Amino acid sequence: MSLRVYAIAYLIFLYAPIVLLPIFAFNDATIIAFPLSGFTTNWFGELMTNTSLHAAVRNSLFIAVMTAILSTLLGICAARAGAMYRFPIKAGIMGFIMLPLVLPEIIVAVSLLVVVVQIFDLGLSNWTIIAAHVLICTPFCIAILNGAFQNLDPSMEEAAMDLGESRFSAFRLVTLPLVMPGIISSMLIAFTISLDEFIIAFFLSGVSPTMPVYIWGLMRFPASLPVVMALGTILVALSIILLTIAELLRRRGMARAGVKDKGGFL
Amino acid sequence: MFKKLTSTEGGRGLLLISPPFFYALALMAFPLGAIILFSFWTQNFMDVDTTFTLNNYREIITQPIYGALLQRSLYVSAVVTVVTVLLAFPIAYFVSFHVRPDRKSLWLFLITIPFWTSYLIRVFLWKVILGYNGVINTGLLNIGLIDEPLTFILYNVNAVIITLAHAFAPFAILPIFVALEKIDRSLLEASRDLGENKVMTFFRVTLPLAMPGVVAAVLIVFIPTIGDYVTPELMGGAGGKLIANMIQTQFLALNNAPLGAALAVVAMLSVTAISLMFVLLNRRWLRGRS
Fold it and tell me: For the residues B111-136, what does the mean pLDDT come to?
């Protein structure tokens, strides 16, 4: 019983900052503090007319979509190899691929910055951010896709091959539909991580900032903070919607593969 | 060659694993090697001098500010790790042992959602909560518990610790939860049947079996915390800056990338050494996993 009270208190701690977001997004004052003054939707209106913000959002969306696709493709390779095949030094290779999960982001950022700028003398662009985001998102994709691939019965693909399908078409016609919910859920997670990532993007962005880098810039000007709150409200609503879809798809995938749900994303 | 590879199971597995493996090799291992090499070079404005030198490391050792920053970073990371894991364990235990099986994924979902919302904005909102006329101070003033706003909760190391403990909560809960889920419940019954009470059963059966999850949680919180410069920048004030802020300054503001690289290498080595030591100390709990 006391554990339940603790759990609820903990959830309040977890949600405390997020609950404040919509409160200040609709608050009619430029200072982010209590007491509240009045209701307004002006800050959302300002979001609509801010063209440099729109450019930053477009950049971030492009980066997030490319990251989602590429890291999920790499994740599929790794999750399938991990679940279906035995090969030499498997544990070592899999551990190596999962390593970015515990690598401090600033290390990823500065090491790629050194390689791109100092060694290859290339310019920074959206693609340098995509390259780094794919690296840090792939372990998350593998963790999600592992769930989908490990529940598959390998004999189903073998049956398709016995019936005359090639190895690839057996994969496409039998396995792919079964792991599809996992793939979509993996893409949504990678998309969400990339869209929100700041530390790496700050180092590796070229002339055009991503959305978090732009928000970071806004934070220096107190007058623009309510607009940041409004933007944050939209982002939170968006990520809750995306994550709910990802979670529902993951569960459907579990049900389709006929296994019992063991819990969350990781 | 290709035919030969695809004809065996091991070959097909290696072929399939090679794209993610080479990606990690090219974008993680190679850049890490590059940054180590770079830390032995020097830079004058835009020109990089590639003669091998230990000057960067000499400067880190002789200038007290770097040692102080590193020490403070390790201290903050350690405190954040202890606080986060201690707060997280009861939650993981509650969800694993006291929540109905069909409700578990709902709880995990609720726990992970705040983690997926904009990190920058979350940090900023902690500033709103802890600030001079923030939520806590206005609340306490209104109730009449305090006469003037508390100042020790923002722009110092405490604020950095609270914010980071919040940011890394799900990272600590999930591995502990997974370890607790794996525990065979009949072992607990056996312990009770053999006369141990609830508390002793927890300490002699549940906790040792959950240790792999606790160790994973410690590592997954401790290591990345060192690399965060957003929270110290926004919450730390002048006395709360950490090593990552210095790395960032060296690279982006002072144009001294080699010194920044050397600082990054030193930070990474210290974190790795401490993590390895921690794993070694706990190795008796990690053995015998099936």
Answer: 82
